[in-house]
Design a protein that fits this description.
about 280 residues; 5-stranded antiparallel sheet; 3 helices
Length: about 280
């Protein structure tokens, strides 16, 4: 089995190189500081969500058929320096919740004060939850039902503003509104009216009071990172990651300063070969 995985990994890296997946570029006041690549089975553990603290990256993954409700989900913890996996949860969603609510997809996650916040949707896009996991061992702490009329097509991401005690999310399709929830009980606190419509947001993270969002552009090798002022609703384009070769899916983003000078860390998922976690500095 190990030999097979090693062969598959080598083959995937060769294909990735030939197709240009390993040579991305970026437009904006940032530069590429590095990348970590996961292929084969390892990519499944990190295909959806990404967040970080001082020592670790945390990822979520989902292989889920929305119509049938059949699928598997993952949470994983990785050493920030070596990107070696140190912990995994192979059953982050209880079986009962899968049966009762159709819950089966974990999206873009966020970290705050030892807790991972994860948005969970399922076969019925209008039934949505936020799960809380212990960042130490990835065990489930509790979950909250955040279903509401404004989340009528799922809950693809969540971003925690721990300083002010809120979490933010939006629907997947076009919207000019962010939803704001209280961290203490995940009750809906209000909305933020945006200066322009957003759509296809895969993840978000707060840094220095601003919300950064990863936007997947449909049928394009140019993705987009947005910067949102949640006080005013002003939306600006922070920078544009360009993936060469063919269309890759931009997934979650986390914003955390590392010793190598990187600040923005973004999942770019190629459903055939694997994924790259791209690291960007904020100085050109």
């Amino acid at each position: 089995m190990e030999k097979f995985i090693s062969f598959f990994t080598t083959l995937s890296l060769i294909f990735s190189y030939l197709l240009g997946f390993s040579a991305p570029s970026v437009d904006g006041n940032v530069k590429i500081a590095g990348k970590d690549s996961l292929v084969g089975i390892s990519a499944l553990y990190a295909g959806q969500g990404l967040t970080a603290d001082e020592d670790y990256y945390y990822t979520s993954g989902s292989v889920f058929n929305q119509k049938s409700g059949i699928g598997v989900q993952f949470l994983a913890k990785w050493d920030a320096n070596t990107f070696k996996m140190v912990k995994m949860n192979l059953a982050p969603i209880p079986r009962k919740n899968k049966k009762d609510f159709g819950s089966g997809h974990i999206g873009g996650i966020s970290y705050y004060d030892g807790v991972i916040y994860a948005p969970v949707e399922g076969t019925d896009y209008s039934i949505n939850f936020v799960y809380l996991y212990d960042a130490d061992d990835l065990s489930l702490i509790k979950y909250y039902d955040v279903s509401c009329d404004a989340l009528d097509d799922g809950i693809p991401w969540i971003a925690v503003d721990g300083k002010n005690g809120f979490a933010y999310c939006s629907r997947w399709g076009s919207t000019s509104t962010l939803l704001r929830f209280r961290l203490d009980d995940m009750s809906l606190d209000g909305t933020v009216q945006l200066s322009e419509e957003i759509s296809r947001i895969q993840g978000g993270e707060f840094y220095n009071g601003k919300l950064y969002l990863s936007k997947d552009e449909s049928h394009s090798t140019e993705e987009k990172v947005l910067c949102v002022d949640v006080e005013t609703g002003e939306v600006q384009t922070a920078f544009i990651p360009q993936m060469t070769g063919y269309d890759n899916e931009a997934e979650d983003i986390t914003v955390y300063p590392r010793d190598d000078g990187s600040l923005f860390h973004i999942l770019n998922y190629d459903k055939l070969l694997g994924l790259n976690i791209m690291h960007y500095s904020n100085e050109k």
